[in-house]
Design a protein that fits this description.
There is one protein chain. By secondary structure, the protein is an alpha+beta fold. The protein has helices at residues 100-106, 111-119, 130-142, and strands spanning 2-5, 11-14, 23-28, 31-38, 51-58, 62-74, 77-90, 93-96. It has 2 domains: 1-98, no CATH class; 99-143. Strand 6 and strand 7 (77-90) form a beta hairpin.
């Protein structure tokens, strides 16, 4: 089950069989979101699971988002709270990058330059947009 909340406030539910569908796209908010069924390699820090991931950026490094939701039931009201787990793929290994420290830990020799790039946005890492994150990863690739 893939459940996502887009900026327009529309919640979509889609159930797909990975045996038949390896990728798909959804257009919402005038943007097309591409998803692929991925099989993360087992790695000590890897908490990624097999499933559909939104392909955010693909080059030497890749950024993918795993979307899920938490269900909160309060009396007669059911809320679905979207969770986005952000990963960078390096040599077919998935590394969660939901915090600045996790991203910096992956590139210790480039840590100072990456910190400067993040600081240039004058935002907390958690408040960076997807396009900011893509720019940071492109910058890392260029170093």
């Amino acid at each position: 089950m893939v459940r996502s909340l887009f900026n327009s406030g529309v919640t979509s539910s889609v159930e797909l069989s990975q045996n038949r569908i390896d990728s798909f796209a959804i257009t919402a908010d005038h943007k097309t979101h591409h998803f692929e069924y991925l099989y993360p390699e087992i790695h000590p820090e890897n908490v990624a699971l097999n499933g559909y991931y939104e392909i955010i950026y693909r080059n030497k490094l890749q950024i993918v988002y795993k979307q899920s939701s938490r269900t909160i039931i309060d009396e007669a009201l059911t809320l679905y709270i979207p969770d986005i787990h952000k990963y960078i793929i390096i040599d077919n290994k998935f590394y969660k990058i939901n915090s600045k420290q996790k991203l910096l830990k992956l590139f210790p020799e480039k840590k100072k330059m990456i910190k400067k790039k993040i600081f240039s946005y004058q935002l907390n890492y958690k408040n960076l947009s997807t396009s900011n994150l893509i720019e940071i990863v492109k910058y890392i690739e260029s170093l």
